Amino acid sequence: MHAQPRKLSLVAATAMLAALAGCANPAVTGPVEVTRFVAPAASDRLARGTVFVETAPGSQPDSLALAPYKQAVARELVRLGYREAPRASADQVAQVRVERFATGPEGRRRGPVSVGVGGSTGSYGSSAGVGIGINLGGGPREMIGTRIGVMIRDKRSGATYWEGRAQFSVSDNSRYADTTASAAAVAEALFRDFPGNNGETIEVRVRE
């Protein structure tokens, strides 16, 4: 007769402890660090015509995990003025590569998370926020790092018109630890004020 109320009390206590743990460990969302490169005399060819978004050469085959990042890039390109088209008829191609990884509180990288697409387009600059244990009263959190690189090329000649790289790091209890939210955030930051200044690195704040 008394087993059920006791069970409910235990569930309530567990929920309360979880809520307190959440308060002791607020979500951490770092800024997105963005670097863009613009080819000389390419500005009049950007944000116009047709484009096809694809996985960058040398990366792993397409996967469901990579799809949200390609979709987010495509949305931003359409917003800028491009029209999506099949590869056969597109004027330009946007090649996307992504890496997501977890870093433990001790700063040790634990390996890929959700997406592990190899082949970097180059140095991503500093790794601000990545691999740092965050202690806000409830112990350090595991951090999730995301890096994305996009190259926009002329499909016929292969010439690179534009290249952008973005990275940011969030705690594992941030809503941006989710792949879809992460993809939207990095893509929006990457294409903000497109095409950007050649070689310039900026930081874009993400609202938690």
Automatic annotation (TrEMBL):
Keyword Signal listed? The answer is yes
Q: Which Pfam families match?
A: DUF4136 (PF13590)
Taxonomic classification, please?
Bacteria, Pseudomonadati, Pseudomonadota, Alphaproteobacteria, Sphingomonadales
Database matches in InterPro entries: DUF4136
Give the residue spans that cross the bilayer.
none
What is the protein's given name?
Answer: DUF4136 domain-containing protein
Signal peptide (UniProt feature, chain positions): 1-26
Q: Which keywords label this protein?
A: Signal
Residues in DUF4136 domain copies: 58-196
The organism named in the record is Pelagerythrobacter marinus
Report the superkingdom from the record: Bacteria
